[in-house]
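User: Thanks for the earlier help. One more: DUF1013 domain-containing protein. Can you show the sequence and predicted structure together?

Assistant: Of course, both are below.
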Amino acid sequence: MSQTPLMPKATAVWLVENTSLTFEQIAEFCKLHPLEVRGIADGEVAAGIKGLDPITSGQLTREELERAANNPAHQLKLAERKVKVPEIKRTKGPRYTPVSKRQDRPNAILWLLRNHPELKDAQIIRLIGTTKTTIAQIRDRTHWNTQQLQPIDPVSLGLTSQIDLDFEVARAAKERPAMVLQNTGSTLLPAEETTAPEPAPASQPFADMSRPKRQDEEKIDVDSVFAKLKQLKRPADEDDDGGY
């Protein structure tokens, strides 16, 4: 039996709106992050998702819910299913979408493009069974029904499962850093160039021949100053001797 409730986000929405459970209890039961549950309470996450009552759907008993409400440390447990439903094995090929739900695919595509822009077109096609042309039209806002489209979670619409959606998002997150590195290119110099010592002055024998050394210039200037002082001092000394 799966330990994850059906439609976990919709279940989390219902628990946030109708119970006094802590964010940690709801996150643990629905297999979500506590910050995501807090975002649901603030209206920033799962916008447009209708809450799913886990009691009427047989996933949770009222006694278990009251026990968790009275004890914040208690973790909710899924109720045992009376009827065992065999797991449906995923087959290769495009996903089949019932005719009654095909009209909801544009809304699901818009939700995926806004909330998970890292997903590739092929991944969106695998999730909800659409076409690349439809994805491009919704992305470019050239779809015939663009003005009426509303972003709706494909899990709540029943077009895909939360497990498949999380799997594709995790795969896109792993591939995204490698793509960023390929686009930016290599801009750092090799370590051999950055750590190499600077060339010694002896390797440039003609570098200092273009101008005289500064010390020689200062020495020449000092000597010329003293020579001028001596020339000025001699006539003054002769005048003083002739005056006696």
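User: Great, one quick takeaway?

Assistant: Confidence is low (pLDDT under 50) at residues 183-187.
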